[in-house]
Each structure stands twice: as structure tokens, then as C-alpha cells.
Structure of S1 motif domain-containing protein:
Amino acid sequence: MTDEKKEVSSDGEEFKDLLDRNVVKVPQVGELIRGKVITASKAEVKLDIDGVMTGVVRGPELYEEDDEYATLKPGSEVDATVIDDENENGELELSFRIAGQERAWAGIQDAYENKKIIRVRIVDANKGGLLAKYRQIAGFLPVSQLAPENYPRVSGGDKSKILDKLRSFAGQEFEVKVITLEEKDDKIIFSEKEAWNEKQQDVISKYKVGTAIEGKITAITDFGVFVSFGENLEGLIHISELAWQRIDDPGDLYKVGDTIKAEVISLENSKIFLSAKKLLKDPWENVGEKYKLGQTVPGIILKVNPFGLFVKLDDEIHGLAHVSQLSLSPGQRIYDKYKAKETINFEIVSMEPKEHRLGLAHSDRLDAKTEKKEEKEEAGSEEKKTDSEEKDEEKKEEKTKKAPKKEKTAKTEKKTPKEKKPGVKKADKTKIE
């Protein structure tokens, strides 16, 4: 091979390499590419692709769910998905929506695998919970997975009121964790409670069982009251821990906004359980000074149950009269004979101060005994009244007898000066003569 041929061959290879290096690769449909914003408006966004072609994003393909796409400006670099390699203007037709969804799925998968906290937007609600979206991907946030501050505590469990409460969250953003991710079934479950737990761990660790707190009541339910305290913490005082005596409705004692003192009695992960009665003196410690076995005491029936009566002996001590300790005729229903708010006499048949139990019994003989006692007291009262009346009459008679003597003395005292007057006149007459 001559030197000229060698030179031509060398130049050809260099030219080929130059062409290979500068070949423009046309993006394919479905490919994710990156471009630089030329212009951006609400109607369309134009991108410069590698300085050799232009792409356009318009109409429904615009996407603002991702922060990257919401505030685009000329010069910004952004990802887009090719949906057509050439439109009517010879431009690449692009989509932010598809690219955004791909990025969103990647974000959700990362959050699920690494247990990261993400933000979701609430779009609607149903009886079971909240419909939420992470960018453009929909998921569900069950009621049971709401943080304590957002849990719908409705007295009586009224479902319509619970739904109204849930719907009030529409438009808000919650911090959540992904606890279920099944892409094939399009099933995504979020948990606000899990995210809240993680954020509160450091704060909760400052509290131990036995720690006394003071807070404000944020909600009242049939089963107790919720108390807000410390650094955005919330605890539950169960109805059985509100007071030493039995309580039917916490609303009878407290209202939302009331300040209350309590003691931490249990810490279960992020759940804090409190007790108000722990800070109160236990009235059962001295119950033996108030009541004795076999003693007959009046009691107010608080509640009638198939198994017996809850009875109030005083503001602090309540007892139970079991159905077996009641005076019921064969076939007679407990509700037919006993009524709530009724006051009758009971006999104390058992006392267990450590267990805070006091057993009562009622029989018709107690009622008969009471009636006789009342009759006797009434008779004694009448006798006392008669004796009192007789004494009053005797006093009146004594006053009557003494009264004339006093009048006579008074008359005698009046007559004394009259008797002296004639003597004076006589002396005067003698002097004249």
C-alpha cells in the first residue's frame, strides 16, 4: 500500500469517528429525557433538548403535583417523558405528568423501603378514613392510622359527625409513612400515626411511669378524657382512672378546656395512659371508720343492671348490691322493683377496702324495720310535743296567777301619796285659823 492510500484511509476513519461522535440521537416514545426550559406559562412549557431540538409540554400533560414542575422558570432543567417524536410543528411532544408519576412511584417506593416520612394531600373522606394523594398517586389513610390530634373523638360514636370531622381535613397536608404498598393492585396505605410516633419518641422518652403532669382536656368520650400536655403530647385518662368512685359519664365531671392534673401510669410506644385518681387520697383507706359489717345504711341507686344495683353511699364510697342479695319474688324482674335515683336502706354484707369493693343487700324486712323506726320517731316526736305544750300551759297559768298580785301592789303604791294629801290640807287649814 502506497503512502497516499494510507493517508486517504486515515482521513476517512477520522471523518467516520467525527460523524459517530456528533450523531444526534432522536429520543424514542416513552423515554425519559432531560431538557432546559426556554419558556414557561400555564398553557405550555418549551424545552431545549441538547441544543439540537425543541420539545413542548402542553394541556393535560402539564403537571404541578411535583414541586419541580410547579415553579418552572427559563433556564431550569427538568425531566419529561416523550409521548410523540414529532408533532405538527416538528417538535417533540413531551409529558410532565407521566414523568411526574414515575418520579412519584420512585418516591413512594423509597419511602416504603426506608420508612421515610412523606407529605400527602387530603382530597376527600369516607366512613373508613381519608382519601389522600402523594403527588398524583392516590392512597388511603384509615381512621385508625390518624395521629391523636386528628383522631375524630365524637361522644356516642355518631357516624355522621365522625364523617363531618374527617371531611374537614380536605385540602390539608399530613405527614405520613407508607405502611402498605402493592403497586399491582394499586393499593397504598398511609399512616399518620406512625409518622407522629417517630417524631414524638424523643419527647415521650422524657416521661416515665409515675411522672405527674398538668394539662388541658381536649376531648371527652364515653370511655374517658384526652389530655394535652408538655410538648404537643396527648394522653388518655380512662373513665376508671378519673376518680375513685364509679362514673357513668365523664361529661358529668369535666368539659373540654378544663385543666386537670394526672400521673403517667403506662407508656406503650407512643401511647400515654394517665390517672387522675392516683393524685387523690384513696377514700377506701378509711372506709372502716365510716361503715361496719351488718350496718344498715341509706343508699341512692345509681344504676340498675341485670346483675345488680350500683349504689351511692356517699360522694366517695359506692357499693354493689348483687341480684342474689335483693328481695325479689320468683319471676320478678329487677327493673320492676328498683329504679335509678331511688333512695332505700341497704345492709352492708361485705367490705374489701384493698379491692375497693363493698357488698350490699336489700330485703323487705329492712323497709319494714325502717317504717317502724319512722313511726316510733314520729310517736316520740308527738309525745315530746304534748309534754312541751303542757309545760307551756303551766307556765301560762303561773303567769296568770302572778299577774293580779302585781296589779294590786301597783295600786297600793299609787294610793299612798293620795292619803298624805288630806293631811297636808288639814295642816294648812290649821295654819290659816
Observations:
- The CA atoms of residues 145 and 191 lie 5 Å apart.
- The domain at 283-367 is CATH 2.40.50.140 (OB fold (Dihydrolipoamide Acetyltransferase, E2P)).
- Residues 405-433 have pLDDT under 50 and may be disordered.
